[in-house]
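User:
Can I borrow your eye for a moment on a structure tokenisation matter? Would you put together a sequence-and-structure record for a protein of your own picking? Please set it down just below, with no commentary around it:
AI:
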Amino acid sequence: MKTAIIFGVTGLTGKALLHNIVEDARYSKIYIVTRRPCGFIHPKVEEILFNYKDFKEMPPIKADHVFCCLGTTIKKAGSKEAQQIIDRDYPIEIAKYSNTLGVEKMVTVSSIGADAKSSNFYLRTKGEMEEGVKSNFKHSVFVRPSFLLGNREEMRIGEKIGIALFSIINPLLFGSLSKYKGIHVSQLSKAMINACFNKTEEVLYYKDF
């Protein structure tokens, strides 16, 4: 039986992951790390309140798998610098923390097109995150989804348009273009779990989900 830690459990992917992992008989214990109580109650789940200021304050949990679902937007974060802290710096700190726990595998949500040398700010940030995580934790897996589908609590007009658009173009994306398909977070989260039990490549694209 395995023990898991989930960072970013209040987001779209984190919620889907938590829902699927508590139903997975391979896990007997799941720690969820959150800034404030999220109200999720389950016999397998223990909540850890953490402000991400100093990872030395995190308890030395015995864990097998770590999942990082952290991510934000410039609008929510308030600036590019603030977004980089959440999208890049926190996952790197989680990788360092995972190393101290003797974790078997860490799975992190990245993005299609992530590249540390990209001229695009978001893709460069995700690429720098991947490089930082890999350099601090050997057994890392990154999932690179395109547009995430699922029930968002706050649905912006752009996201509504995106969902409608992907429902039309998804069937047209095949072959080398399949990695650009929109993916439902439930399917993505199941792939993240399976990546911990299977011998996987370092980066998972749509075809692997």
Q: What stands out?
A: The two ends are 23 Å apart (CA to CA).
